[in-house]
Write a structure and sequence with these properties.
Elements lengths: L2 H21 L3 E5 L6 E4 L6 H15 L2 H12 L12 H7 L8 H17 L19 E3 L6 H6 L5 H16 L17 E5 L4 E4 L8 H15 L3 H4 L2 H14 L22 H14 L7 H19 E3 L6 E4 L15 E2 H14 L9
Antiparallel strand pairs: 1-2, 1-8, 3-4, 4-5, 6-7
Helix pairs in contact: 1-2, 1-13, 2-3, 2-4, 2-13, 4-5, 8-10, 8-11, 11-12, 11-13, 12-13
Length: about 375
Amino acid sequence: MSAATGRALAAVVERVAVTAAEVGRRFPLYADPADGRWTTTGRGSWTGGFWAGLLWLRARYTGAECDRRAAAACTGRLAPWTGADTATRGLIFWYGTAAAGDDAEAAAIRAGAAGACLAACDPDLGILPWGDALGGPRLLARVDAVPGTVPLLAGAGPGGAAAAAAHLHRHLDLCLGRPGGADDDPSTWFRPALRFETDTARWRPCEDPPPGWSRGRAWLLLAVADAMLRPAGAAGDRARLADAAALLLTRGELLTGPPVPPADTALPDGPRDTSAAAITAVALLKLARTPGPRAEQYALRGAEILDHLVRSHLTGGSGGRPAGMLLDGCYDAAARLAVRHELVWGDFFLALGLAALHGIVDITRV
């Protein structure tokens, strides 16, 4: 911990208050780096849970009842997503409720979403399919379908832990090119998205997102870390999870590379992605809480990344833009969409990491 990270957490919390006043009942998605104005969505899309989560983190930080009510109201607006056919319900409902602590309404919404996801799991494919609620083919396996989904399914009562383990390990098969995975070039060690072809009954890698998608690697590391913090039934083969974490950390250069990676590692001179860095930092703080000889190294690297984000990418309130904006997040490099912006999930993971360092939240439970 440092005084700088303490001031940064205060600035991020204040930024949440400014954002809440600006967006009202809508959900922030990404903000212009020049003036901090948000592009918003009406229903939240796949990022809505991160806004609710930020509001819960603010409530934990301030202890104010009005902030708790605002967080609870936002979480309630996520409820229509319960029945939506999308694996991003893991992102929406886990991160939108986990920081709520013992709030009964948030717990009820999370339980309803967990049950709906369990019912939608495909036992033949071994996953909760990506779904078609956000467009595109339904039978996809994507790395961003795994974080949040594992702890959400694990809490779904009988059968939930087994479904969580199956979902995670099948994605490891596919995304890391293990036996039983996709039939393509074995030199491609990371595949962030694959499509199931019903005519051949095989998985084929998708071109988008590309193999070098840094946020995809961060998402998968986060999912593995969350599983390793859960009871054995939800984790499945813990030795394999440790191997997967080691592969992502070493081949992805997450311990030795720059604190903020390129959005696409195949394009080192392209836009960088602070949101991938913030996700990685949180994953490392979680891994540091699991037994193992490298726990201290993980904790130090997680804190190092957070410190770099605070010192080099967080606005200080000058230049006509608010303080507490985490800049240089990249929404979609290929589409040239919001490539140097403040992203709501980047803000969330930065806030979560800082809150964990300062003892405001238990990183093993959020």
